[in-house]
Amino acid sequence: MVAAPATDHREFRTEQHGADLVVVGGGLAGTCAAITAARAGIRVVLVQDRPVLGGNASSEVRLWALGATAHMFNNNRWSREGGVMDEIMVENVYRNPEGNAVLVDTVLLDKVMAEPNITLLLNTAAISVTKDGDGDIASVTAFNSQNSTRYELSAPLFCDASGDGVLGFLAGAAFRMGAESTDEFGELFAPEESYGSLLGQSIYFYSKDVGAPVEFTPPDYALADITTIPRWRSFTTKVQGCRLWWIEYGGRLDTVHDTETIKWELWKVVYGVWNHLKNSGQFPEAETLTLEWVGLIPGKRESRRFEGLYMLRQQDLVEQREHHDAIASGGWSIDLHPADGVFSEHPGSHHLHARGVYQVPYRSLVSRDIGNLFLAGRIISVSHVAFASTRVMATCGQIAQAIGMAAALCTRQGVAPADLVEPARMSELQRELLRTGQHIPRLRLDDPDDLVRHAELSASSSFVLSSLPDDGPAVALDTSLAQLLPVPAGRLPQLALSVDVATPTTLRVELRSGARPDDYTPDVVLGTREFDLEAGPDQQVKIDLDVEIDEPRYVFVALMANDDVAVHTTQTRISGLVSVRHTGTQESEPGIGRPRVEFWTPERRPGGHNLALTLDPPITAWKVENLANGFARPTAQPNAWVAAAGDDAPSVTVRWPAPRRIARLDLAFDTDFDHAMETVLWGHPERAMPFCVRDYRVRAGDTVVAERTGNHHTRNTLAFDPPLETDRLTIDILATHGDAPAAVFEVRAYAPAIHPAGWSSRS
């Protein structure tokens, strides 16, 4: 029994929390920043104003999380984000291959709650800040309406991952809303006024077939005239969820303060669309459908962007410029939407694709005004045009991981965020990120503390590509089809393929490559041959091109489209091998800075077979030395050790000339960085990637010191307490998740005194 006497006023209960880093915003960016920082050993308070984590990826909005892989519709091979972002995507596919948005929430909450260094405050909104005498943020006040508690949060470092930049706004940091003119940065893709200067917001809906007739009475506020939407004929009962991303509105309004107005307009549209589908009489299949879910908050694309130490722009992305402080990658197209959204006469989106992935600089993550403020998510320092690419969630998540690691280094060294731009400190930040699996294009992990660098590597066998068996389906050349091959420098090997021919025809074969060894836009033709073929099955095509390869790189053996020919394929899948089809071309438009890009993209499993072929001489790109080459995914070469197909007991051995003390072992496996792991709606053919090592054991000398079963993740860390003392470590691969030969990208070992910032004793 509580009986409180009347009083003239009361205050909310107040709790105070101190930390090394306060992260405001619990979308994928804030979540990844918090986890990375916590694993690096610093105390984090994560403040989220919603009941779940994930932001636009959560069950409240239900947009699929994507980044550079872009549904595998582009030339960004093996580009899926690494680190914590990779963990989240891989774990979600394992638990949730059907794409249930509610289960995405559980994956994110599990990841955060597993970190003892994180204090999580859900349903808690930041409402004010205090600043110190230097103009830095001293504390944040936040309020939770669910438990009527006010929180006073203090720390030396703060990260704004709130989406609208609430922390930077309250602290007075410079920001922008809208599109820069072409003149400011020379960005030719800057939109004209009729297209608008802001991207709008979207609300999604799900329907469900209940197997019996369902009537629908629309609310009074539903849009009455569906024909006011120029694309109203595009609505069907078969399309729902985030495939209707173009139900978008609000780009002409203030996308911060008018969010409630925008939400109501989107609700009107959604219920008007459903009324059209149910009651227009044009969709008899809708009779048994019910409206299962409608979003309660809009998925927001754009509002404030804050000014950092550098503002990323169109040229950085399209030209794939090098940055000395590169800390992450991006690869989504520059994807601008008309401000009028669903009511626009323009197409729903306007894309400019670069040739491949680009670097994101650390300077774009540090406020130029507030000395202890990091910028994360869609508010980072980019132009409106560049923002149209960096805004997507998996890219935001990977970029924010750099903030988490940077905060740990700042805490350890007692320096400000801007001080990490200094070359030696930046090299340390990049090294720590690469250790955790971060993908930074064209950066190799140079790790002086890795004991494997000073060891001799050997393996039970190594895969040699001399032939791939002819045991797959024959695939028609209704579009051009190419096999990517990692070839060494020197003369191109001779190749032989088998084809079925319907009528006498001429088959054109082109050898192609990209502008760089790690460029997968194959518009450089190295050589061609034409073959006059008679009708008949199982004909051999021998390709012998006198072509010199300048340096190790991927080349495309392209069979150009021919409706009379089908090429034989194989069931064999190997890490770093993939076939691709020509799916279209982005033509050059110099006036807007759009380059010509031919798209050669893979087919998703269970399709996407490699070509059955023979090579002379064989390709030996899967050697055990790759385990210490500093790359943990395919780039210009596979960068993996792969066992021979017939090796029944694949293993890798690391030998030192004298015993070493080992406290930690890092292993990196192949979870297929080419696979776009959309979190919701899309669905995936496997729970675990077929290339991934499932079961393995580690031996020090002849003694088993660790054994793991059921692994489905990219990175495994084994901690040894007490440390091992041995001159030989052997990793025995016991099983993978598919029929592919065993593959490993990295083996790294560390002495007891070395605990890299990404080290986690939980791993």
Q: What about the largest sheet?
A: 7 strands, antiparallel
Shape: globular
For the record, the CATH architecture of the largest domain stands as: 3-Layer(bba) Sandwich
Strand residues, percent:
25-35%
CATH topology label of the largest domain: FAD/NAD(P)-binding domain
How many distinct domains? 4
Mean pLDDT score? 96
CATH class of the largest domain: Alpha Beta
The count of strands amounts to: 41
CATH superfamily heading of the largest domain: FAD/NAD(P)-binding domain
Estimated radius of gyration: 27 Å
What distance lies between the first and last C-alpha atoms, to the nearest angstrom? 47 Å
**Class inferred from helices and paired strands:** alpha+beta
Helix percentage: 10-25%
Query: Low-confidence segments, ≥5 residues, pLDDT <50?
Result: none
Total helix count? Answer: 10
Protein name: FAD-dependent oxidoreductase
GO molecular function: 4 iron, 4 sulfur cluster binding; metal ion binding; oxidoreductase activity
Pfam families: FAD_oxidored
InterPro entries: FAD/NAD-bd_sf (IPR036188), HdrA-like (IPR039650)
